[in-house]
Amino acid sequence: MSHHRQQRVASLIKKLVSELLQKEIKDPRIGFVSVTDVEVSGDLRHAKVFVSILDGDKEETMEALQSAEGFVRTEIGNEIRLRHTPEVIFRYDDSIEKGARIFEILEDINQDETDEE
Fold first, then answer.
1. Which helix (DSSP H) or strand (DSSP E) does residue 66 occupy?
2. Which GO terms describe its cellular component (predicted)?
């Protein structure tokens, strides 16, 4: 399987899942969720969807997303023509939180240096 095809399928899945989260999935446990990345296996049978949760309880949101995996897989099968529709697995991605924390630390350091001058 070509790496280029994997990337194309991952990009399509990322776009589709983002739209589903915004417009179709109406679970009240899901707050503001952003799809940060999608990794597709070489045989296109598995897709890991990495999400960042910016609003709401993380555990509750992940439970809601996991319960929606079947629906998401069905929608992917309807929208993207593949021999096998990939299994969808949601994974929590804390990179945005870590980035925000690093930014805060840098701002504090910068402020301390400004105060010393």
1. helix 58-67
2. cytosol
SS3 sequence, 51-65?
EEECCCCHHHHHHHH
Domains of the chain: 3-116 (3.30.300.20)
Among 28, 33, 31, 10, which Cα is nearest to 82's?
10
Q: Which of 97, 52, 47 is nearest to 73 (CA)?
A: 47
Q: How far apart are CA 32 and CA 22, in angstroms?
A: 9
What lies within 8 Å, CB to CB, of 3 at 6+ separation is none
User: Tell me, what's the pLDDT at 98?
Assistant: 85
pLDDT at 5 over 80: yes
How far apart CA 65 and CA 33 sit, in angstroms, is 10
